[in-house]
Design brief:
The chain contains 13 helices and 50 strands. By secondary structure, the chain is of the alpha+beta class. The protein has a domain of about 160 residues. Helix 11 packs across helix 13. Pfam families: AsmA (PF05170). One of its GO terms (cellular component) is plasma membrane.
Length: about 900
């Protein structure tokens, strides 16, 4: 169908007009392209530009080179050298500087409402950001000025309403050929926190930038961090898709590789790190995250090694609107990792959960950590670890909770010597408040199959249960209530507080109820020596408060119950420069003999009379001089009823102080043998040859049990006082005896000297003098009402110069010596019989009354020889006979005298009668 002619004329007219208009536009464009750069000089507006920047920012803009402009087909601007001054107080270096910047936009698309840029180039970009110690930043003043400018513009009428310009340009039509940054430099200096970051040699290159389209991005830079010094070489590559109108942001094919250097952390080694992954963020709908892979290693230094460490996130959902991310599965795996003496062959961590960055919460339904051949320290045997727990983190409250923590180790957690725990496990409820610096592990239970203490000492099923509370800022920890258990062998409860803020210290209390110690000692391979009593160590209980540091420990309010006896008091031990022991103990009753090795008989055999040492006598015993020089001691012990070496003592008390090798015992007192003993003693082991002084006093002592105990037989009985003041020196008891110098005072009453029978010996001697049968040797003794003497001790020879014995039958005085080393007696005494009724009825002794008789007592003290002086007895007898003959003669003379007197009287009477007649 043909068009009308009028129509064809109209169309030809419009075609002609359009052609003319197009030609005019082309000519105009050519004219503008050629003429505008010559007519429009941007450098003429330099001052206006710097003034405008100064008004808006308050900073000085410096333009160093010429400004360049282009018009067609690109509207472009170039800057050659520009800088923006820094804020006052932040130095002379500019805050922002660029060596060269260029940007171009297509003119014709711009006229059509489309933004099409060419390559935006920034060469030598430098941005310096800083924060002062008072918290003020070097961009804060610009923010404040711009904020005031916006407030002013809101109150100023606009010549054109915004609605008139809305929709002039569409973001969907926004297009940039590319962005290029070369030799950029970004600095951050935080003087408030003391941190500094520097990003240098920054190169960035992108492909075509279109909203909604994929933009390839590549970049590289060096990053330096201070304290500790860390340098990183970073290469970055990714595909980025940005769609603001749709609220969609996508990162694909992310590849980031870096090489970390830090002499402080890695020495001379380089730590490689690689990151790859993808993610989608959507404004009004959940996005996705993953898969993501972060790989570290391999690298190796003298003390550190990582063959491989990989973190992967398989898949996640990110809900930006609700600020929630759900991670289905997160894995961390590693191989052959060594650090600070610790090591493991493989590591596997798996978790998953929800991250709510809006509320600051992380909820991980399950976290499982497995490690093979884990060595916490270099000297520990490898173990396999398996830990499981749910984890809840609240960043706003700064708390982490693991309500069902469980850790098990397969193997022996032990050092190279073999001591340690076999198959230990730990469980509890962890609550960590890092804001307040506090942590709690409630219902903690540490259990192991066995505790190996080495050398075959194994304790089965050790267990600890407690609640642990810690203040990390103060480095204080408390375990209460604390329960310990070792199978059926031992259990205890208590509490303990530990602090490490100003040195390691601890205090608490422990209560171990009665248990049988022997099975525990058996498990510990402690071989107990045989004891006299078979039922010893049947029960033990301990209750005490304790307090200490790494160098000392003190036990207060100590109570120990052993086999029915109770000990109470305090004790302290320090071992910093020199071991120091201090105790103050009270014991109600203690029979030490029950715990000593058994003997062959109930009493020691009497010592032989030969003067030689008895069989089995260990001889001189060394004094522990080295031990006395190694530690200090301050002890006080009180025992209500003490049995020691078959000696029963009552209310025993000892106070001993040992310092610098000098031991002072003052007092050592006890009631024993029916009397009281009080002793002071000093042993000075500081010189090369130790010296000893001892001053015991025995009052009211019964000698019979004393002699029975120490001599094996009661050679001497009675009750009295012994007072010794002696000194000696030497390194063993033999030297002590040889160097002894002392004085012993003896005052005894109502006793008996066994095997020295003075009366019977006098009878025998008298019989021998009269040539009569003396009869068998006497087996009795000599009783006394009083026995006194002073014994001078010079080495093993003990001399008595003033022996005095009194009894109802005799009085005896003398002197002599005792050879303690040879156990020999050598005494000379004068015995005088008293005229008692018993003596007068004795036909053998009656003639010896009131006559001093020399007696020699010699020989072994167990069976001495008692020999009266026979010559003296004979002389006494001769004198007696002479006296008797004299008496007879006198009697005869008297009788003759009486007879003569009678005859003379008769003669006189007869003569007188005759005279009278």
């Amino acid at each position: 169908m043909e068009r009308p002619a009028s129509t064809r004329c109209l169309m030809n007219r419009w075609i002609k007009i359009s052609g003319i208009a197009l030609a005019v536009l082309i000519v105009l464009a050519l004219v503008l392209t050629l003429a505008l750069p010559r007519l429009l000089d941007p450098n003429a507006y330099r001052d206006d530009l710097t003034r405008l920047v100064s008004e808006q920012t308050g900073r000085t803009l410096t333009l160093e080179g010429d400004l360049g402009v282009s018009v067609f087909p690109w509207l472009g601007l170039e800057v050659n050298g520009a800088s923006l001054a820094n804020a006052p107080g932040f130095g002379e270096e500019p805050m922002l500087a660029v060596r060269h910047a260029a940007a171009r936009i297509r003119l014709l698309p711009l006229l059509a409402g489309r933004l099409e840029f060419g390559t935006i180039a920034l060469d030598g970009l430098q941005l310096s950001l800083a924060r002062a110690a008072d918290g003020r930043s070097n961009w804060q003043d610009i923010q404040e000025r711009l904020a005031r400018s916006e407030e002013t513009s809101e109150t100023t009428p606009e010549a054109e309403s915004p609605s008139q310009t809305d929709g002039r340009f569409s973001l969907s039509e926004f297009n940039i050929t590319g962005v290029r940054v070369q030799e950029g430099r970004l600095l951050w200096d935080d003087r408030q926190n003391g941190t500094r970051y520097a990003l240098t040699d920054w190169d960035l290159k992108t492909g075509q930038v279109r909203f909604g389209g994929k933009v390839p991005v590549t970049s590289s830079f060096n990053l330096s961090v201070g304290a500790p010094d860390l340098d990183a070489e970073v290469d970055f590559e990714a595909g980025v898709q940005v769609a603001p109108e749709a609220g969609r942001y996508v990162v694909e094919d992310l590849m980031l590789e870096t090489r970390l250097r830090s002499p402080e952390l890695f020495g001379e080694a380089v730590l490689p790190v690689a990151l790859s992954g993808a993610g989608v963020w959507q404004q009004d709908a959940p996005g996705t995250l993953g898969p993501i892979r972060l790989e570290v290693g391999p690298y190796k230094t003298a003390g550190q090694q990582i063959d491989k460490l990989v973190l992967t996130v398989d898949e996640g959902v990110v809900d930006v609107a609700r600020s929630i991310a759900r991670l289905a599965q997160v894995k961390l795996s590693g191989e052959n990792i060594r650090w600070a003496g610790s090591a493991l062959d493989s590591l596997d961590l798996q978790t998953g959960g929800e991250v709510n960055w809006g509320s600051g919460r992380v909820e991980l339904a399950s976290v499982r950590l497995q490690a093979k051949a884990l060595r916490p320290t270099a000297d520990m045997a490898p173990v396999a670890l398996d830990a499981r727990t749910p984890v809840s983190v609240d960043w706003k409250r700064q708390r982490l909770e693991a309500p069902d923590l469980g850790v098990t180790l397969d193997g022996k957690l032990a050092v190279a010597g073999g001591q340690g725990l076999l198959d230990p496990s730990l469980s509890g409820k962890l609550d960590y408040d890092w804001g307040a610096g506090r942590a709690r592990l409630n219902d903690m239970r540490l259990l192991a199959e066995s505790l190996d203490l080495g050398d075959g000492r194994v304790l089965a099923r050790p267990e600890i249960t407690t609640d642990v509370a810690g203040a990390l800022s103060d480095q204080r920890w408390s375990l209460k209530p604390l329960n310990l258990r070792v199978g059926d062998l031992f259990r205890a409860q208590g509490n303990i507080d530990i602090t490490a803020a100003r040195g390691f210290g601890y205090q608490g209390r422990i209560d171990a109820p009665p248990f049988a110690p022997r099975p525990l000692f058996t498990a510990l391979k402690i071989e107990l020596p045989p004891t006299t009593a078979s039922d010893t160590l049947r029960t033990l209980a301990v209750n005490t408060a304790f307090k200490g540091t790494a160098e000392r420990v003190a036990l207060d309010d100590l109570r120990v119950d052993l086999d029915g006896g109770r000990m109470q008091g305090s004790a302290a031990i320090a071992w910093d420069e020199r071991m120091q022991v201090k105790t103050d103990l009270t014991v109600d009753r203690l029979n030490v003999d029950r715990y000593l090795p058994p003997t062959s008989g109930s009493a020691p055999e009497p010592k032989p009379a030969t003067g030689t040492a008895p069989a089995g006598d260990p001889g001189p015993q060394p004094i522990p001089v080295a031990l006395l020089r190694q530690f200090d001691l301050d002890t006080r012990l009180r025992v209500g009823a003490l049995t020691l070496s078959r000696i029963a003592m009552q209310n025993a008390e000892i106070r001993a102080v040992l310092k610098d090798g000098r031991l002072v015992v003052d007092p050592l007192q006890a009631g024993l043998f029916g009397g009281q003993m009080t002793t002071t003693m000093q042993i000075d082991a500081a010189p090369e040859v130790p010296t000893v002084t001892i001053k015991p006093v025995f009052k009211g002592i019964q000698l019979a049990p004393l002699m029975q105990r120490f001599a094996g037989e009661a050679y001497l009985t009675g009750t009295g006082t012994l007072d010794l003041n002696a000194a000696t020196r030497g390194a063993d008891t033999g030297q002590w005896l040889r160097n002894l110098d002392g004085l012993l005072s003896v005052d005894l009453r109502d006793g008996r000297i066994e095997r020295i029978d003075i009366l019977n010996q006098l009878r025998r001697g008298y019989a021998q003098v009269r040539s009569l049968d003396p009869g068998p040797a006497p087996e009795g003794g000599t009783e006394f009402t009083e026995l006194k003497g002073k014994v001078s001790m010079k080495g093993p020879i003990w001399r008595n110069e003033a022996l005095s014995l009194t009894s109802p039958l005799l009085r005896m005085d003398g002197k002599g010596q005792i050879d303690v080393d040879r156990q020999q007696l050598d005494f000379d005494v004068l015995a005088t019989l008293l005229g008692t009724g018993m003596i007068r009825g004795d036909r053998w002794l009656e003639d010896l009354i009131d006559k001093p008789i020399p007696i020699a007592i010699k020989g072994p003290w167990a069976r001495p020889s008692v020999r009266p002086d026979v010559k003296a007895l004979a002389e006494a007898k001769a004198r007696e006979r002479l006296e008797q003959e004299k008496q007879k003669i006198q009697e005869k003379l008297k009788d003759r005298e009486d007879e003569l007197r009678e005859k003379a009287a008769e003669k006189i009477q007869e003569g007188l009668g005759k005279f009278l007649r």
